[in-house]
Amino acid sequence: MRQAAFHSFRLRNSILWLGMLAAGFSVAVIPVTGEEAGATTRTKETPMKILLITGGGWHDFHAQKTILTEGLGQRLRVEFTVDDEAGTDPTAVPSRFPNPDWAAGYDLVLYNISLSRDQTAETAQAIIDSHVKHRVPAALLHGSVHSYRFAENPNWFRFLGGRSMRHERQHPFANEVLDPDHPVMAGFPDPWRQPQGELYVIEEIFPTATPLAHAYGVETETRHPTIWVNEFENVRVFVTTIGHHNETMAADTYLDLLARGILWAVGADAAKIP
Fold first, then answer.
1. From CA 163, how far away is CA 206, in angstroms rounded?
2. Is the pLDDT of residue 16 over 50?
3. 214-252 burial, b for 16+ CB within 10 Å, e for fewer?
4. Closest CA to 253 of 197, 191, 169, 200
5. Cα separation, 199 vs 213, whole angstroms
6. In sequence order, what DSSP letters do the residues of 132-165 get, joined into one string?
7. How many domains does the chain divide into?
8. Confidence of residue 45 (pLDDT cuts 50, 70, 90)
9. What is the C-alpha to C-alpha distance for residues 22 and 32, in angstroms, rounded to an integer?
10. In this structure, what CATH number is given to the domain that contains residue 21?
């Protein structure tokens, strides 16, 4: 990724989780053992603990790992654990998933993955089960929506709140706001235009999901949701199909959106992101 993409971050006062001011962020890249510490006692001064799971094919996940941790660190009081065990392999199965308690101890799991080849229904279910067991919210970005889509596990789509099996060819598109009063969409431009992107063809949105923005597909000649929130078995899930290119992910609009989506998912005040 060009260095200019990182310089595009706008310097600002960081926003503390639950509204208190704080400075900076901390990132811990840990060896993947499949065993994590239990839940911690939380106070207003305790950083939000986010597990970022990243990697797979067809995307620059190495650069995006830095974009996400730096960008969200400017907006939230957060401590990251980064699991990039998958590398560039779309068939990878992170070794933490067989442990039914792998999500325990985190406030949220952030997925920026593209794991869509030779994946099994059991792996998809292991992801879902740990979220439900420990009531850990999730945020899924772009290629994460297409991960496990061939795993033949219908619960995966219910967890996401939507079903997509393909995307249109790369072309410019404009995201139009559907629910301007939802806290996740506070301050979001209407429309927000991508000079280049991959518009995911959304075949189904489940009744548990609330679409927040959509964009017109020139190939399908219809509008497809690009941002939505879902509630699956008392677990909040934030989803956006936007984010293929590094320049899009590094944009202030995108990072502000993601920060609000995370705050909504953990039950905090998403409107506190300026």
1. 8
2. no
3. bbebeeeeebbbbbbbbebeebbbbbbbbbbbbbbbbbe
4. 191
5. 12
6. HHHT--EEEEGGGGTTTTTS--HHHHHHHTEEEE
7. 1
8. low
9. 29
10. 3.40.50.880
Structural tokens at position 120: 């099994």
* Strand arrangement, sheet containing 235-240: 26-29, 78-83, 48-56, 108-114, 138-141, 235-240, 222-232, 209-217, 173-177, 192-194
Give residue-wise pLDDT tens across range 204-221. 999 999 999 999 999 999
- Measured in Å, how far apart are the chain's first and last C-alpha atoms? 27
Parent domain of 213: 3-272
pTM for this prediction: 0.84
Name residue, tokens 């061939």: 150
β strands within the chain, DSSP E: 26-29, 48-56, 78-83, 108-114, 138-141, 162-167, 173-177, 192-194, 200-205, 209-217, 222-232, 235-240
CA–CA distance, 102 with 123 (Å, rounded to integer):
12
Q: Are 235 and 199 in contact (CB under 8 A)?
A: no
pLDDT given for residue 10 in this prediction: 33
Pair 112, 86: CB distance under 8 Å: no
- Residue 191 tokens read as 């429309």
Bridge partners, 194 (sequence order): 173
